[in-house]
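Exercise 7. Given the encoded structure of a 118-residue chain, write a plausible sequence.
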């Protein structure tokens, strides 16, 4: 199982920049499905405080529409893998894809996360 944060303004789509997202929608994801375990209303204004929030929730992967280079470096240094989409993407569809990927053929970075969690 991995912990994922979707950066969102509407709680339905990955539609937010790392620095301006209103919410972190937090999910546990495994090959057998996913569970919402929290929604964080992000009032933290600095990238450091946003990374700290994600670390507090033990997030492994974060999805957003954009993230600056300095913020991305802070996220990676916080042992969180950032994934950036150019356009808005449905959280539900991404959860289904991620769950299926975990079940069938996880990429090396996800295998590494799973090994570190074991």
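Solution.
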């Amino acid at each position: 199982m991995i912990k994922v944060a979707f950066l969102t303004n509407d709680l339905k789509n990955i539609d937010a920049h790392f620095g301006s997202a209103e919410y972190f929608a937090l999910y546990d994801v495994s090959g057998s499905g996913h569970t919402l375990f929290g929604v964080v209303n992000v009032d933290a204004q600095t990238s450091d405080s946003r990374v700290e929030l994600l670390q507090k929730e033990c997030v492994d992967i974060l999805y957003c529409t954009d993230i600056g280079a300095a913020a991305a470096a802070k996220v990676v240094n916080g042992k969180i893998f950032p994934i950036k989409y150019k356009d808005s993407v449905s959280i539900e569809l991404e959860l289904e894809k991620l769950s299926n990927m975990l079940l069938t053929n996880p990429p090396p970075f996800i295998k590494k996360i799973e090994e570190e969690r074991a």
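Remark. The chain has a mean pLDDT of 93. Students should compare their own answers with the one above.
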